[in-house]
Amino acid sequence: MSSDVRFTDFKSDKQPTWCPGCGDFGTMNGMMKALAETGNDPDNTFVVAGIGCSGKIGTYMHSYALHGVHGRALPVGTGVKMARPDIEVMVAGGDGDGYSIGAGHFVHAVRRNVDMTYVVMDNRIYGLTKGQASPTSREDFETATTPEGPKQPPVNPHALALASGATFIAQSFSSDALRHQEIIQEAVEHDGFGFVNVYSPCVTFNDVDTYDYFRDSLVDLAEADHDPTDYDAAKDVILDSDKEYQGVIYQDENSVPYHEQHGVDEDMSDIPDGAPENATDLVREFY
Amino acid sequence: MAADFNWAVGGEAGDGIDSTGKIFAQALSRSGRHVFTSKDFASRIRGGYTAYKVRTSVDKVQSVVDRLDVLIALTPRTIEENLDELHEGSVIIYDGERTTMQNVEIPEGMIGIDVPLKRLAEEAGGAIMRNVVALGAACEVAEFPIENLDSALEKRFGDKGQKLVDNNKEAARAGQSYVAEEYDAEFEYDLETTDEDYVLLNGDEAIGMGAIAAGCRFYSGYPITPATDVMTYLTGRLERYGGHVVQAEDELSAINMALGAARGGARAMTATSGPGIDLMTETFGLVATSETPLVICNVMRSGPSTGMPTKQEQGDLNHMLYGGHGEVPRFVLTPTTVDECFWKTVEAFNLAEKYQLPVYLTADLSMAVTEQTFSPDAFDMDAVEVDRGFVVDDASVEEHLSESGGFQPHELTEDGISPRAFPGTVDGAHMSTGLEHDEQGRRTEDTEMRVEQVDKRNRKVETAKEREDWSPREFGDEDAENLVITWGSNEGALAEALDLLDEDGIDIRVLSVPYVFPRPDLTEDIEAADETIVVECNETGQFANLIERDALVRVDRINKYDGVRFKADELAREIKATLETGTEATQ
Predict the structure, then answer these.
(1) Is the distance from CB of B157 to CB of B168 less than 8 angstroms?
(2) Residues forming a β-bridge with B51
(3) Can you give the residue ranges of the Pyruvate ferredoxin oxidoreductase beta subunit C-terminal domain (chain A) (predicted)?
(4) Alpha helices in B402-468 (DSSP H)
(5) Chain A contact for B410, CB < 8 A?
(6) Are B427 and A43 inside 8 Å of each other by CB?
(7) CA-nearest residue of chain A to B442?
(8) pLDDT, tens digit, for every residue of A154-183?
(9) CB under 8 Å to B324, separation ≥6 — which residues?
(10) For residue range B67-87, what is the model confidence (pLDDT) as tens digits?
(11) pLDDT for B185 beyond 80
(12) Residue ranges per domain, chain A?
C-alpha cells in the first residue's frame, strides 16, 4: 500500500454516463476521498456494485470490483471480506437494489456485522428504467406505474437497520461534499457493518426530493447535540418522520465484527499444491 | 460371491431409527465386512414411517436388493411396510410388551423374536437404550461378535462419557443374552468377520471431504434436503483447515457469497438441491460471464417444485445443461459412486479454476444418504493435486496490462484462458461484471468485441475438451453385443445386475458416464453394439436424448421416476425384458 494515494487514483478512465447534475457524482467522490483518506489504495480495495444507475459506480471507480446481479451486492461483499479480511470492502447500490429486490440480504448483512461499508445511493426513484416508484418513494408520489402514488408508506431503512441489530447507521447528502465524505469515512473506520444511506437526488425523474428540498430540510446531527452512542436517542431520530437528518445516527461502541466473532482472519486465497496438511485425519474419522 | 445379509430397523420418525441403523452399519464396517445402507422414507401407507436398511457381505456390496433377513420392528407398520421383502425364515425382532406391539402377528413362515426391549433397557440404565438392546438381540440372531458393536457404541457415545458407553454395552448384552436364553433356535446366519480396515461414509460426506482436500476454504449454503449433510460435514471441519462455513439467508445469497469469496481468490463452493438450483440460476450467468471459478454442488431430489423432497430422481440434467438466459458455458460432472464423489469434487475445483467457469458437481439423493464401506486407500490424500490455472502475481502482472496500463482479466488468448489477479496484486485492479465487457472488464456494446468475448468463453470449453480426459468408466464384457449406458448413481446397481444377467447367459458391456458436459462421444460404442439401453432415474430420458443426438441413432431406455433408486435384481429384470422386446420399457 503506497502512502501517497490520491482520491483520483480511484477514478477509472471511463466517463460517467449519469445525467448532468446527478447526485451520484457527489456520492462517488465522497467514497473515493474516504477510501484514500483511510489509507486504502485501488489494489487493496474491492467495490461491489448493484444494478441501476447507482450500479454503474463500479465502472467509474478504479479498484478490484464486481458489478453483479440486481439486489445481491451485499452477499458478494460478504464473501469477499470473509475470504480476504486484508481487503477493504465497500458495497454500493441504490434504494431499489438495497431495499426492494435486495431487502432480505440487507437485514441479514446488518445482523452479520461483517466489517465493510454499505453505501445506498437513495434518490427515491427508479431512474435507469425511467421513473417508477421505489421503496423509498413518498406515499403520494405519482409515476407512470403509480399514477396516484404508491399508497404505501416508504421503507424506513434506518429503522430496518436498527431493528436488525445494526452497529453503525448514518445518513448523508451527496451535495454536502465535506460532511458526506466525513460520514462515509466514519463508516469505513467503524469496526463492523457501516451503513450509510445517502440522499443522492435524481434530477431527471424526481421533482419532489430535490437538492433544494434536502438543502432546506436537513438537520445536521453534528450540530444538534445528538449522541450517536445513545440507542434511544437514535431511535427517536429514526422514527421522527417530520424531519430529514444527516450525520451518524447510531454507533455501537462495543461492536464486535463478524471476523472476530467467528475467528475468520486468514487470507483464503493462499492454498497448498496438494491436500492440506493432516487431511488424512478426515479419512480416519470414518473408521 | 459370499452370501449377503440384509437387515433393517424401522419405526416412526423420532424413534432414533437413523442413529440405530448407523451404529449397526458401523459395527459391521469395524468387523471388516462391506456395508451398503439405504434410508427408507418410502411409505406405502402414510407418512411418518422410516427405516434404515443395511446390506452387508464380506465382498463389496454396491446396491440394495428386495430382500430382508432380519428386521427390528418398533411398530406394527414396520412389518406391513416390508412384507414384500421379508421371506420364509426372516427374523422379526420386536417388543411384545410395547402397547402397540402386543397384538402383532408374525407372518406365517417367519420367526418372531419377542424381546422386552424397554424393560431390559431400563434395567441397564434407561429406556432410551431400547434400540441398543435390539441391536444386541440382532447380534445373537446373526451370530455376529458383539465386541464389534462395542466399538461402534464407543464411537457414537464416547464424547458423552464412559458411563454412557458402559450402559449401552450392558444394554446390548442384555438383548443378546435374552435371545440366547429364551430362544433356543438355531438361526441360519453366521456373520463372519475379516481383518480388513474399512471407512464408512456417504456421498455428501465424500463431497465435503473432497472439498477440503481440494483446498476449498469457503462454503456458503442454505439448508435443503438432501444437500444439508454437505454443510453439516463441513461445519467445524472446514474451519480446522483455515476455512469458513456460512449459513446464508437463502440460496440467492449463498451463491453470491461464494462468488464473492472466489473473486477474493478463495476456492469456494455451495451445495443445494433442485429448488435451490432454481434460485442460483439467477447468478449462474454472472459467474460464467465474469469468468469466476465456482463449484456448485447439486444433490438432486425428486421434482418439480417441492416434488418429493426425500425421494430419488435424476431430473435436473436439462436444467444444469441449459438453465439460465443467454448462452452460458459450464461443466457438468456426475460422479457415479460414493468414492468418486470425493475425486470428482477435487476435479471440479481444478476444472473450475483452470477454465474459469462454473462447474456443476452432481450427486443425487440415493448417493447422498447411502453409507458405504471403502478401503481408506480409496481416499489417498497424497494423490490429490491442486491446479489453480492461470494466476498472475505482482511480478507477472505487467505482462498482461493493456497499453493504457489496465489489467486484462478477459485477455483474448488462443486457448481462451485469460490471467487472473487476486485482490491485493499490485496493478491487478479490475472490474468483473455481468455486462458484456472488453479485455479489461469494462462494459462494451462494440459488436466486434462482443463476438470476440463470446468466442473466447466458448474457446475455453473447446480447449478443455482437448486437454482433459472425459472418458466414461467401463465394466462388464467389453465384447458384448449389448451396451448399457448410464450416468450418476445407477452404477452400483448396474454392476450387480450384471452378475445376475450373467447367470442367465446375458453378456453386457457397461459405460458409466461421470461427465455430462463436456461428455465422451459414444457414437462408435453404440454403432459397435447390437442393442443400446440408457438407464436413468427420470421420465423423459434426458441423458438418452443427448446420446441419441450425439450419435444420431435411437436407443432403448429404462427410466425410473417413482422416487426409489434402482435395485440390482429389478434392473436385471428390466434389462432382460428390454433386450427381449427391443422396445422402450417404461415405468
Answers:
(1) yes
(2) B10, B40
(3) 202-263
(4) 447-467
(5) no
(6) yes
(7) A59
(8) 999 999 999 999 999 999 999 999 999 999
(9) B281, B284, B285, B288
(10) 999 999 999 999 999 999 999
(11) no
(12) 7-284
Among the residue ranges B100-104, B192-196, B244-248, the one predicted with the least confidence is B100-104
Inter-chain contact A107–B217, Cβ cutoff 8 Å?
A: no
Does domain A7-284 sit in CATH 3.40.50.970? yes
Interface touch A268/B257, C-beta < 8 Å: no
Type of residue at A253: E
**pLDDT value at residue B45:** 62
pLDDT at position A4 is 82
Q: Examine residue B518 and say whether the peptide bond preceding it is cis (omega within 30 degrees of 0).
A: yes
Q: ipTM of the predicted structure? A: 0.98
**Closest alpha carbon to A53 in A66, A70, A65, A78:** A70
Residue B539: φ, ψ to 5°: -90, -40
What pLDDT is recorded for position A1?
44
pLDDT digits (tens, 9 = 90+) for B534-552: 999 999 999 999 999 999 9
Beta bridge partners of A199: A122, A173
* Window 332-391 of B, Cβ < 8 Å to A: 376, 379, 381-382, 384-386, 388
Asked if A286 and B214 come within 8 Å (Cβ–Cβ), the reply is: no
Amino acid at A266: E
Q: Which positions in chain A touch B379 (Cβ < 8 Å)?
A: 282-283
What three-state secondary structure class fits A233? helix
* B422 CA: distance to closest CA in chain A (Å): 8
B433 touches chain A (CB under 8 A): yes
Q: What's the CA gap between A23 and A6, in Å, rounded?
A: 22
Question: What H or E segment, with its residue span, contains residue B522?
Answer: none
Interface test with B, best of A70, A84, A106 (most B CBs within 10 A): A84
Q: Which amino acid is at B357?
A: L
Give pLDDT tens digits for B449-501: 999 999 999 999 999 999 999 999 999 999 999 999 999 999 999 999 999 99
Task: Count CB atoms within 10 A of the CB of residue B127.
Answer: 13
Set out the domains of chain B in order of their start, with CATH numbers.
Answer: 5-182 (3.40.920.10), 201-383 (3.40.50.970), 397-467 (no CATH), 473-581 (3.40.50.920)
Phi, psi of B118 (to 5 degrees): -65, -45
DSSP annotation of A19: P
Distance CA A220, CA A171 (A): 10
- Give A-chain residues touching B212 at CB under 8 angstroms: 275-276, 279, 282
Amino acid identity at A152? Q
Inter-axis angle of helices B117-124 and B162-182, nearest 10: 140
* pTM (two decimals): 0.96
DSSP codes, B241-275: TT-EEEE-SSHHHHHHHHHHHHHTT-EEEEEE-HH
Which band of pLDDT confidence, cut at 50, 70 and 90, is reported for residue B13?
confident
Residue B1: predicted pLDDT: 46
Please count the other Cβ atoms lying within 10 Å of the Cβ belonging to residue B560.
24
Q: What's residue B42's pLDDT?
A: 61
Q: What's the helix, strand, coil split of chain B in %, to 5?
A: 40, 20, 40
Provide the pLDDT for residue B187. 84
- Contact call for A82 and B422, based on CB within 8 A: no
Residues of chain B positioned with their CB less than 8 A from the CB of A286: 199-201, 205, 376
Sign of the four-CA dihedral A118, A123, A127, A132: positive
Grid cell, residue B274, equals 433442485
- Taking CA atoms, what residue in A is nearest to B380? A280
